[in-house]
From TrEMBL:
<dbReference type="InterPro" id="IPR013785">
    <property type="entry name" value="Aldolase_TIM"/>
</dbReference>
<keyword id="KW-0808">Transferase</keyword>
<protein>
    <submittedName>
        <fullName>Uncharacterized protein (DUF849 family)</fullName>
    </submittedName>
</protein>
<keyword id="KW-0479">Metal-binding</keyword>
<dbReference type="Pfam" id="PF05853">
    <property type="entry name" value="BKACE"/>
</dbReference>
<dbReference type="GO" id="GO:0046872">
    <property type="term" value="F:metal ion binding"/>
</dbReference>
<dbReference type="InterPro" id="IPR008567">
    <property type="entry name" value="BKACE"/>
</dbReference>
<dbReference type="GO" id="GO:0043720">
    <property type="term" value="F:3-keto-5-aminohexanoate cleavage activity"/>
</dbReference>
<keyword id="KW-0862">Zinc</keyword>
């Protein structure tokens, strides 16, 4: 991304698109009973509360009645339908991990099989987005979940810690290309969850060869454990390398969430919050997803930035837009053209 002398002036920035992740499948309901919804009605109401507070993108996971993260696509269909009815303008972003929570204390924390994750393209009603990882990567979330913050929660259990420490994100080349093909065919936009520059470079190569032809909505994930660590220089390097025409959201863990959200919003980028990322505020107190959204809204307004409505967020994300070819995609996202030349950047089509 490039910054002009007045790029940090709020009138030259998009409105703020707040993503909230309020379902937190790594936690159990007893970890934060005031804020972790369990019944389907509670899970739908949580989306409504978050939207009313100012979040326009819902990062969606689902729970079973026993409190564990659901792996049943029928439950995802049910929650998506409920959210669609309750807050139709909210962007529904299904977490591509489905539920990475282990079934019991002795089981590894695993993402579901490649074939099962492909079935996210068949959800009905269709979500607006599914998050997509690029490159198989270690995801040791325990590396930065310090013991003092886990005291009294389910993740204080050493067996669960061991399970999450060994978690891996499976996202090899063949799976990624097939997944992008299926999502695009279904008219579902991928939201790319990127672990560092290497993932951004791989994504650019996919665009250049035409494996993905659509807008680039990106999240930089600074959580350590195989991903970029929460070092501002990692983030700034990623911002520097990101294409001019993308949208970029910051994501981190625990007390790193607020600083990275503030950095992102000050630069014209976008924040992500919610209990999937942190249960606590900067003073160690429990902080609900709605409270975190309200905090982002306050910071954004102090910076002079307005909060995007659902309809405005859809326009910023270019929901429903796909392009005809690689050259058009490169131009629309602010990349240099392939050496063979660039096509007419106005040539776009809407998803079926």
């Amino acid at each position: 991304m490039q910054f002009l002398d007045d790029s940090l002036h709020p009138e030259n920035m998009d409105k703020v698109v707040i993503t909230v992740a309020p379902y937190g499948p790594e936690w159990m309901p007893d970890d934060f009973p005031e804020d972790i919804p369990v019944t389907m009605d509670e899970q739908v109401q949580k989306a409504v509360d978050c939207y009313n507070a100012g979040a326009t993108v819902l990062h969606l996971h689902v729970r079973e009645l026993d409190g564990r993260g659901s792996k049943r696509l029928s439950k995802f269909n049910e929650l998506i339908a409920g959210v669609r009815r309750a807050v139709p303008d909210m962007i529904i972003q299904v977490g591509g991990s489905i539920s990475f929570a282990p079934e019991d204390d002795g089981q590894a924390a695993k993402w579901l099989s490649d074939d099962t994750r492909h079935m996210l393209a068949d959800l009905e009603p269709r979500p607006d987005q599914v998050t997509v990882a690029i490159n198989t990567t270690q995801m040791n979330i325990m590396e930065l979940l310090y013991p003092e913050y886990l005291h009294g929660t389910s993740l204080a259990n050493p067996a669960l810690q061991a399970a999450y420490a060994e978690m891996t994100v499976p996202a090899g080349p063949a799976w990624v290309e097939e997944h992008l093909r299926r999502l695009t065919h279904a008219g579902i936009q991928p939201h790319f969850q990127l672990t560092g520059i290497h993932a951004l470079e791989t994504l650019e190569r996919l665009v250049r060869k035409g494996a993905y032809r659509g807008p680039l909505n990106l999240t930089w994930i600074g959580i350590g454990g195989g991903f970029d660590g929460p070092n501002p220089f990692n983030f700034f390097n990623f911002v520097h390398r990101a294409p001019q025409g993308c949208t970029l959201t910051a994501e981190s863990l625990l007390k790193n969430v607020l600083p990275f959200n503030m950095m992102a919003m000050s630069m014209g980028l976008h924040p992500r919050c919610g209990i999937e990322d942190t249960l606590i505020g900067q003073h160690g107190e429990r902080m609900s997803s709605v409270q975190q959204i309200e905090q982002c809204v306050r910071v954004a307004r102090e910076l002079g930035r307005e909060i995007a409505t659902g309809k405005e967020a859809r326009a910023i994300y270019r929901i429903g837009t796909f392009y005809d070819d690689a050259d058009t995609t490169l131009a629309a996202n602010g990349y240099l053209p392939n050496r063979a030349g660039v096509a007419d950047p106005a040539r776009v089509k809407s998803a079926a």
